[in-house]
């Protein structure tokens, strides 16, 4: 089984094993805290987030906002947050995840939230999304959170299927109405 190695501040090295179905699949990912040197590739991956965005917003609007959020997380990390990158030894940076703490609307309990999770096209289907989700769970537990949330665009069926297979359950939906 291939090995996924996770390194983050204050953590021991984390290893994840997963089965592969083909020898052409990537075999090793390293997940670590992002640094300033990662900025260009992190911001470039924001374009991928627009690929699964809603049909109700222009892709440029989605990518622009996600780029701003990632740039802010790099420049001014919020307390109770983590910006992690996933690297492959040959392909370089192939994934980014922004973890935050948020207050639950109903209970007012602070909980962990995956604000951004993106995997590069060349790393799709290789188990990196699952490894990032597992890393988010580990980070959240290490921070003492009892709940981890994320949001997903309605049209992103592939991600929703992955989340369901990993034990995630839908809770809220957002509706909108244009008033112009």
Describe this protein's structure.
This protein is an alpha/beta fold. The protein has one domain: Gcn5-related N-acetyltransferase (GNAT) (Aminopeptidase). 29% of the residues lie in helices and 26% in strands. It is globular. 27% of the residues are buried. The model is unreliable at 7-26 (pLDDT under 50).
Unreliable sequence segments: 7-26
Q: Specify the CATH class.
A: Alpha Beta
Major sheet strand order: 2-1-3-4-5-6-7
Q: Main β-sheet: number of strands, strand sense, barrel status?
A: 7 strands, mixed
Number of separate structural domains: 1
> Structural class of the helices, strands and pairings?
alpha/beta
Portion in strands: 25-35%
Multimerization state: single chain
Measured on Cα atoms, how large is the radius of gyration?
Answer: 16 Å
Portion of residues within helices = 25-40%
Global geometry: globular
Write down how many β-strands occur, each being a DSSP E stretch of 2 or more residues: 7
Compact overview of the structure:
The protein is an alpha/beta fold and 180 residues long.
Notable traits:
180 residues, alpha/beta, Aminopeptidase, seven-stranded mixed β-sheet, 26% strand, globular
């Amino acid at each position: 089984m291939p090995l996924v190695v996770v390194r983050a501040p204050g953590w021991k090295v984390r290893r994840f094993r997963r089965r592969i179905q083909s020898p052409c699949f990537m075999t090793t990912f390293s997940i670590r805290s992002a640094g300033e040197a990662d900025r260009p590739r992190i911001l470039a991956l924001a374009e991928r987030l627009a690929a699964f965005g809603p049909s109700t917003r222009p892709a440029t609007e989605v990518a622009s906002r996600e780029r701003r959020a990632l740039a802010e997380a790099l420049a001014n990390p919020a307390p109770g947050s983590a910006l992690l990158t996933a690297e492959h030894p040959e392909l370089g940076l192939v994934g980014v995840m922004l973890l935050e703490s948020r207050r639950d609307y109903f209970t007012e309990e602070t909980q962990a939230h995956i604000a951004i999770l993106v995997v590069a096209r060349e790393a799709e289907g290789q188990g990196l999304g699952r490894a990032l989700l597992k890393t988010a769970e580990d980070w959240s537990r290490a921070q003492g959170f009892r709940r981890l949330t994320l949001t997903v665009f309605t049209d992103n069926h592939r991600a929703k299927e992955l989340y369901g297979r990993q034990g995630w359950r839908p809770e809220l939906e957002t509706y909108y109405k244009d008033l112009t």
